Amino acid sequence: MLTEADLDALLAGRHADPFSRLGLHADDKGRLWVRALLPGAAEVALLDAGKDKRLVELEQRRPGFFEAQVPRRKHRFDYRLAVRWTGGGEGVYADPYAFYPQLADAELKAFAEGSNFRPWLSLGAHLVQHGDVAGVRFATWAPNARRVSVVGSFNNWDGRRHPMRLRHEAGVWEIFVPHAAEGDLYKFEIVSGNGTLLPLKADPYARRAQLRPDNASVVAALPPPTALPRQRERANRRESAISVCEVHAASWRRGVSGDFPTWDELAEHLPAYVADMGFTHLQLMPISEHPFDGSWGYQTLGMYAPSARFGPPEGFARFVKACHDQGLGLLLDWVPAHFPTDAFGLADFDGTRLYEYADPKEGFHRDWNTLIYNFGRTEVRQFLIGSALYWIERWGVDGLRVDAVASMLYRDYSRPAGEWIPNVRGGRENLEAISLLREMNEHIGEVEGAITVAEESTSFPGVSAPTYAGGLGFHYKWNMGWMNDTLRYMAEDPINRRWHHDKMTFGLIYAFSENFMLPISHDEVVHGKGSMLAKMPGDDWQKFANLRAYYGFMWGHPGKKLLFMGQEFAQRQEWNHAESLPWGLLEDDRHAGVQRLVRDLNKLYRAQSALHRLDCEGAGFEWISAHDAEHSIYAWVRRDGTGRMVIVVCNMTPVPREGYSLGVPDGVTAWREALNTDSAYYGGSNIGNGVAAAGLPVQDQPAHGRRLSITINLPPLATVFFVPI
């Protein structure tokens, strides 16, 4: 018999095991009783589902609580509840407490042990069918909670209606809610272990969410498995040309409404533009759900949900396809380093520091006022690795650019002495994060063609080395040192560059220690740093010439390329996330010229295997002139290992140098100019070396320590590429 204490606990939403009391149960004499907690119901009757027969009217023992003994039945049977509501309306419903546990013991055991790396197949909200009853299976991890209920649009947000079953093996709470459906809003109502009712929590595994400022989770179908197109595997290889356009989807071009563009609006224009510009890959800044626009997506709470800013998730699938149809790879910015403190999110999820480290010396980021994941906890590791695999396996993206890796690797990152906790060996490395990144990359490495790119700003060894060789297992690493050194050099007035010559050469000392990507990202054109054009010294002519020369230097330099949107046409102002790019600048031929240059640099980079095949190997690079600081000239040879070559020459002063003798490799009789950033086509002064079929003959005259040379005209503030004839 149900005791008054049981009844009090059920009505208060505090019962430890509602499945043992609600639904159909036999008493100690073998008689069947049915009990239902339905706040807001006026009348409830029991129906035999198979015969659609009314068996008994339930007695309302307390407001909202109904029970009755089942006549002439000794065994469990399929039943329904006919309900008339006090506010009007009535319906026939399956009872959520008539269904057995939803999750298999094996998958819960794997989750508890830390070997379930696709936890999104178990946790979250899943559309399921039990016989003729459709509904949603909800499950969440909250091991320290006293009670968890799912609340939503299907139960008037009443936590007494659907308290969940605790599966003690893993601390997972679950329930099947009949008649809940795709599009329903929901959250979890959690009572902590000390009895505190917590703020309603969004689902960590939600695949869709409301548009901010609303923050409920939305029931969504699980995307089907989506493999990468076969050709993507080759396109993502180390020896392939990889040139990335980084894009902030919300501000690339506003939607027709003047607000966020939809995925379909983006799909119609963005992939085609990026492909026409010659880029091989498109990288989106974080598009997973996040509460604050001003974080640009880097303070995410929806690690499995494409942001509602761009419309329903299925639109994202069409966008991915549009990228692949254009021959583009798609990379997503992914943020496993930290998460915001919003009360509806992961913070103190079950009343304890569940997803984050408990000690603020480990678990709080001072730079961003965010919380740090507990990288050592098995369930958190599965949550993060599962998210990485989810985007690749279920949406078919090519890979992930992993944000803020340096902040994960070091326990003292941005912390003064005495305010960080050493690892178990007494060191500063975060051993748990290192292990997590290795494990994540090993799992992603099992997906043919998928890649990861690390934003890692220190000299941590082996970031892009295989895990079996002791590395972290990333495919590529951003070369932040190269970016900082070369931008400092370019900011110098040309008359002073002779004193800073080594800033442009220093990167070649370590250029092949990792698989590097050269990044000119959004971080370089915000927070008072100015646009790329604004960084350049001199008058307007010199600014444009300097920028063109720098882009030529970058595309000729070993390493994969990345350029942030708007910089391909020399945006004048800093990037503003709340506005569209200033596309009107392209009416000015100087800006259009820079755009034409970037397009042609990409075309040359892809066409000439010497410029990309050995991007990450020392055999692909050879200096011709590295020490001409007096004239600020740099010259080198790029090779592909099969005999093909390209010569790159940079003049970083506004002084043209006609009749310049350039030492060249043996084995070629003539060279021709393949691209000149000073061409009038790009807005330059058009000093160059012509395009005659005969090219520039090799002379038996020594230069730069070589026995052969060619005589060239070296334009001012320009980079020139030469290829053999």
Automatic annotation (TrEMBL):
Q: What is catalyzed by this enzyme?
A: Transfers a segment of a (1->4)-alpha-D-glucan chain to a primary hydroxy group in a similar glucan chain
Taken from the record, one Pfam family name reads Alpha-amylase_C
Q: Per its database record, what is this protein's job?
A: Catalyzes the formation of the alpha-1,6-glucosidic linkages in glycogen by scission of a 1,4-alpha-linked oligosaccharide from growing alpha-1,4-glucan chains and the subsequent attachment of the oligosaccharide to the alpha-1,6 position.
Query: Which PANTHER family does the UniProt record give?
Result: 1,4-ALPHA-GLUCAN-BRANCHING ENZYME
- Glycosyl hydrolase family 13 catalytic domain sequence ranges: 246-612
HAMAP family for this protein: GlgB
The identity of this protein, by name, is 1,4-alpha-glucan branching enzyme GlgB
Q: Known EC number(s)?
A: 2.4.1.18
Q: Which GO terms describe its molecular function?
A: 1,4-alpha-glucan branching enzyme activity
Family according to the record: Belongs to the glycosyl hydrolase 13 family. GlgB subfamily.
Note the SMART domains from the entry.
Aamy
Keyword set includes Glycoprotein: no
Which residue spans adopt a coiled-coil conformation according to this UniProt entry? none
List the InterPro entries hit by this protein, alphabetically: A-amylase/branching_C, Branching_enzy, GH, GH13_cat_dom, GlgB, GlgB_N, GlgB_N_E_set_prok, Glyco_hydro_13_N
Q: How does it assemble?
A: Monomer.
Q: Which gene encodes it?
A: glgB
Identify the catalytic residues.
403 (nucleophile), 455 (proton donor)
> Can you tell which superkingdom this protein's organism belongs to?
Bacteria
Q: Give the pathway annotation.
A: Glycan biosynthesis; glycogen biosynthesis
| Entry keywords, A to Z | Carbohydrate metabolism, Glycogen biosynthesis, Glycogen metabolism, Glycosyltransferase, Transferase
